[in-house]
Amino acid sequence: MLVSNRWVRASGSLQDKPISIQFREDWQLAMNSEKYSICVQIAWHASSIDDSTGFPGIAEQARIVEFTELLQTRLEIGESAIVAMMITHDGINQWIIYSSDLEKLQSGLDTIPTNNGLYPIEVVADDDPEWNTFTQVYQRIQPEATA
Question: Residues 104-136: pLDDT tens digits?
Fold first, then answer.
């Protein structure tokens, strides 16, 4: 596989609400390969939010974790896509995925089982060969350089 399954997590607050951002440790390998030019963003709007954390409720978090694992196993087959980043903030989980083939990605999404009901997701795709969507978030979470 082009990138490992090691993730880096950043957490903090945004507009006085907690935020968690996870990204692939060696994401630059995928970006520099110039293979993945389509950015697919999937958003899950939680139906239950834990007031103390601002994150989805425990039961819904379990479904989100399961969905994340399914995204990786179903979309990253044959290295036609990479789940590059996950963001959780204000009741929304967002996945930033880069793909080389939108039809293969859609086919992979279609294989995700829905035995427990459909997932409350929205999917959008855009050409993004420079990985601007990813790097805009990534640059904002980098520690300030000290002089």
Answer: 999 999 999 888 778 899 999 999 999 999 999
d(CA 147, CA 141): 18
CB burial readout 61-84, b (16+ within 10 A) else e: bebbeebbebbbebbbeeebbbbb
On whether the CB atoms of residues 26 and 3 are closer than 8 A, the answer is yes
d(CA 39, CA 54): 27
Question: Residue 8 corresponds to which tokens in the numbers above?
Answer: 């880096």
Measured in whole angstroms, how far is the alpha carbon of residue 21 from the centre of its chain?
9
Closest CA to 105 of 86, 77, 132, 129: 77
122 three-class SS: strand
Q: Running DSSP on this structure, what letter comes out for residue 5?
A: S
The backbone torsions φ and ψ at residue 57, rounded to the nearest 5 degrees and listed phi first, read -60, 165
Dihedral sign from CA coordinates of 125, 42, 75, 83: positive
User: Global pTM?
Assistant: 0.90
Instruction: Tell me the residue ranges of DSSP E strands in the chain.
Output: 7-14, 17-24, 38-45, 81-89, 92-99, 121-127
